[in-house]
Amino acid sequence: MPDFVIPAPPVPTIPVVGGGDFPVRRVYCIGRNYAAHAIEMGHDPDREDPFFFQKNPNNLDTTGEFPYPPHSSDVHHEVELSVMLKSGGSNIPVESALDHVYGYALSLDMTRRDRQGEMKKAGRPWEIGKAFERSAPTGPVHPVAEVGHPDSGAVTLKVNGELRQEGDLNQLIWKVPEMISYLSEYFELAAGDVIMSGTPSGVGPVVKGDSMEVAIEGLGSMTVVVV
């Protein structure tokens, strides 16, 4: 056993439908992967090279609660499909990329939009707006053996029963195999990696007390309360 000089931090995990837990190694997030969302954020939706940012593994949270973060007054919801990898490598061909997927989950990429905007304007990294504590509420992992590889289906988010976001997985600019392949050209992917695949249009602010219900066709729904 290693002789740690301080207690080893726990491995972040996400429960799996049917039993067991999925250990999280890294979390990659793709930006502006739905055309309508790219437009609402003021960008050209034409297909260009994808770009990614990262959250921390322990930002993924399964408690059903989202603590409103400090130092922000404009925190937005972004519903996303998360892709959980069971293996990886470098320079993975698109044709075999799905062989590396263990399963899929519902997720939220909660964003301090005001702080993210400040960082964009200053040409600085986004972590303060994206990688804060419990910023990625996540549902249980649905294994591929049970749900296959969803490439179409409604993606929705309601706040207090009001529909805010609505899209379809078939609207992804960069599809799941392409994301995996592209990422593997720049990073060595591995088991435990999570890829958050982008959000449809309709992102907007939440306040304490709000109830967010997210759903993806074939993966059910989850409710997260802002506290």
Automatic annotation (TrEMBL):
Keyword Metal-binding attributed: yes
Keyword Coiled coil part of the UniProt annotation: no
Pfam families: FAA_hydrolase (PF01557)
InterPro entries the record matches: Fumarylacetoacetase-like_C (IPR011234), Fumarylacetoacetase_C_sf (IPR036663)
Domain of life of the source: Bacteria
Chain ranges of the Fumarylacetoacetase-like C-terminal domain: 27-227
Keyword annotations: Hydrolase, Metal-binding, Pyruvate
Molecular function via GO: acetylpyruvate hydrolase activity; metal ion binding
Gene3D superfamilies recorded: Fumarylacetoacetase-like, C-terminal domain (3.90.850.10)
Descriptive protein name: Fumarylpyruvate hydrolase
Record organism: Puniceibacterium sediminis
